[in-house]
C-alpha cells in the first residue's frame, strides 16, 4: 500500500495559475525591453511605445524614455492574458514548434488584423525589411519563451503527480 506524503497532497492542490501569471508578466517585460533596445539600435522602427502610446497620444513625453517604460509595463500586464490563453489552449504541447507557430500567428494578428487600431504603425507594405524581420523574430522569441515555459511547468507539475 502506497503511503501518501503530505508534500504530494500539497503539490496536487497547487494551481499553475500563479506560475502562468509570472511567466506572462516576465515574458512581456523581457521581450518588450529587448524590442525597445532593438528600436534604440535601429534594428526596427517600431518599438513598444509605437503600439501602446504613440497611436493614441502625440504628447512629447510619450516619444521619450518615459513613454517606452510605461509601454513596457502595459505590455507586461497584457502579456499575462496571453499567457493564460496559451495555458488554456496549448499547455500540453511540448517543444518550441507550438511557440514558433503562435509567434507567427500573433505577429500577423498585430500587424494585419489589428492594424486599424494602431494609426502610428505604417502599413505592412511600407515597413522596411529590417523592421519586419526584427519584429517577427521578437514575436517568435516571446511566444517560444511563453509556450516552452508554460508547457515545461505543466509537464513538470502533472508529470510528477501521475
TrEMBL record:
Coiled coil: none
TM region(s), chain numbering: 21-43, 69-88, 95-113, 133-154
Keywords: Membrane, Transmembrane, Transmembrane helix
Record InterPro entries: YqhR (IPR024563)
Keyword Membrane: yes
Domain of life: Bacteria
Name assigned to this protein: YqhR family membrane protein
Naturally occurring in which organism (per UniProt): Gracilibacillus salinarum
Upper classification of the organism: Bacteria, Bacillati, Bacillota, Bacilli, Bacillales
Amino acid at each position: 500500500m502506497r503511503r501518501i506524503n503530505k508534500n504530494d497532497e500539497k503539490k496536487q492542490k497547487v494551481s499553475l495559475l500563479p506560475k502562468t501569471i509570472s511567466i506572462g508578466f516576465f515574458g512581456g517585460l523581457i521581450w518588450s525591453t529587448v524590442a525597445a533596445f532593438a528600436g534604440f539600435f535601429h534594428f526596427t522602427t517600431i518599438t513598444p511605445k509605437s503600439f501602446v502610446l504613440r497611436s493614441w497620444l502625440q504628447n512629447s513625453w510619450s516619444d521619450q524614455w518615459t513613454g517606452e517604460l510605461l509601454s513596457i509595463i502595459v505590455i507586461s500586464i497584457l502579456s499575462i492574458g496571453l499567457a493564460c490563453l496559451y495555458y488554456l489552449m496549448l499547455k500540453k504541447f511540448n517543444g518550441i514548434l507550438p511557440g514558433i507557430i503562435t509567434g507567427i500567428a500573433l505577429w500577423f494578428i498585430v500587424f494585419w488584423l489589428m492594424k486599424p487600431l494602431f494609426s502610428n504603425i505604417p502599413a505592412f507594405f511600407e515597413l522596411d525589411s529590417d523592421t519586419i524581420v526584427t519584429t517577427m523574430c521578437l514575436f517568435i522569441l516571446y511566444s517560444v519563451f511563453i509556450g516552452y515555459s508554460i508547457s515545461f511547468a505543466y509537464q513538470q507539475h502533472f508529470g510528477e503527480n501521475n
